[in-house]
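User: Second chain of the day. Same drill as before.
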Amino acid sequence: MTMRVVSLVPSLTEAVAATGRELLVGVTDWCSEPADLDVVRVGGTKNPDVARIVGLRPDLVIANEEENRAADIAALRAAGVAVRVTEVRSVPQAFAELGRLLTEDLGLGRPGWLAEAERAWADLPDDGGGPGLRAVVPIWRRPWMVLGRDTFAGDVLRRLGVELVHADHPERYPAIPVERLRAERPDLVVLPDEPYRFTADDGPEAFPGVPAALVSGRHLTWYGPSLVEAPAVLTAALRGARPAG
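Assistant: Same format as last time:
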């Protein structure tokens, strides 16, 4: 009998779909990859429809300690649903969690894309291949919030040769007024297109005179098949924004 799985994490939805698509019976409205995934939608990552999930009779719900609310996880467990809560705050932790989830929890074979992703990150040059610059990395604008300590995206950038200005901040996602961010005099501002969709017309203008790297949020913050191409894609974006001279 095929296992029935509901995923509340977009990147893990992509990972499961790439390895055992037939297991998925429900995903969130924000699960955009793969684009042709045709299963029940169960609401958002922060406001899932618990009753609808329970009605799907899943053998396992996949969640994440950062992506999903503790109250929703508790409600699912109270309804008798098994929930696997992942924690991913670094690239090595992503590989470990993906391996356990796919092989131990879901009973699938270890996928080739996971080994390919591990090689892609292991093969980075000693300096990460990135620009070697101090960067401010906003993830929200109203109010301005940035990457602080102990985050997956921060570890991704560190491995690509980018030093986060707020890497030692006591908060993981501190809210800091943009005037203070500018006063930090960063060499670079890195602007992902999620969770806030920064664009060439919405974000760089707040940091006049500072080079801006517009990057894919899927490659910066997702842990799944996108990890295969993330080093090359992100390095190209970072190098493209390197200041002259």
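The first helix runs from residue 10 to 20.

User: Great, on to the next one.
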